[in-house]
Amino acid sequence: MAYVPFSKTLELMRLADMAAARPQGVCLDDIKITFNVNHRSAQRMAQALELVFPAVSKTIDPTDRRKWWSLSGSERQLRWQGIRADELSALEMGIRRAKREGAITEVRALEALRHRLIALHPASEVRRAETDAEATLEARGHACRPGPRASYDPAILDEIDTALKGPFKLDITYIGERDPEPRRRTVEPYGVLFGLRCYLVCRTPEVDTRVRHFRLDRILKARRLKESFVRDEWFDLAAHAARSFGAFNSKTEFGKVVWRFNQRAAPVAREYVFHPNQVIEEEPDGALIVSFEASGWLEMAWHLYGWGDTVEVLAPDELRMFVANYRRHDFPSFP
């Protein structure tokens, strides 16, 4: 068997995990993207996988002639790798982030996955990994991170989650911001957006066909109905979410947004992703122009406030006037 350096061994074990976990296995494009290597290096890694794992199977897709490597029936070999502290800490980070965002159903699913993972390995090995994982979490500030977080009724989130899997219609009791009296609505749920404020994304077929947002903290009751509905196949939750800066979505506020960060703030702003579709432009004087299309002036204003007077809103005019009187100069640091 060919000699494999230690660092390459770790990558090879990761590749084996991928080949075993994915139904079709992995192809050279998967290897190139995951390990950030060129085509020739990906070929060498695939060859090493065949050498180290005799159970690997190789197939060729008849449509595009791509080669696929898979590791079916290799659970025992993969279990020998043990439970890794960095993977356990990453899973725990996901659980704690979900808790802070109020994503109760995701917390339960991730905790169940963690329990099954731990049950597969000896107690001594698990204790060692948990100790190392906790040290990693503390070092990264995830053990006891302060700050505000959302809090939602787990029973309501359970009903929403169950309805989304159907999909089934939901009967909700909701208090609107302009209507203090609770009202019942029948909605067709499409997803949940988590942020500073969290929203149920849905349609109300009894009213119209447009997509609406209902704040989770204003939903008093939720009950999954037995009646199912046909989800709009053209609706893309990710694309819909990208129309918002945070979680709030409004057609009347949607448009091009342009911010200018001055020389002092530009180095910090350059490291931010303010929006997934943002465009960055460097100014000759060192300033930074950030532009994107989204809605939600209030959520933008909340964020811009932390930059003080180092950021200027060039567009839209409504947002520029909204923040004009709140641009402070005495903040000691940037967000």
Any overview of this molecule?
The structure is a single chain. By secondary structure, the protein is α+β, with helices and mostly antiparallel strands. The chain has four domains: 74 residues, Winged helix-like DNA-binding domain superfamily/Winged helix DNA-binding domain (Arc Repressor Mutant, subunit A); 55 residues, no CATH class; 84 residues, SH3 type barrels, CATH 2.30.30; 72 residues, Alpha-Beta Plaits. A five-stranded antiparallel sheet has the order 6-5-4-3-7, covered by helices on one side. The chain has a four-stranded antiparallel sheet with strand order 9-10-8-11.
Q: How many alpha or pi helices?
A: 12
Q: Percent range for helical residues?
A: 25-40%
Q: What would you say the CATH architecture of the largest domain is?
A: Roll
Strand-residue fraction?
A: 15-25%
Mean of residue pLDDT values: 84
CATH class type of the largest domain: Mainly Beta
Q: Are there runs of 5+ residues with pLDDT below 50, and where?
A: none
Distance between the termini: 53 Å
Biggest pleated sheet: 5 strands, antiparallel
Whole-angstrom Rg: 25 Å
Count the domains: 4
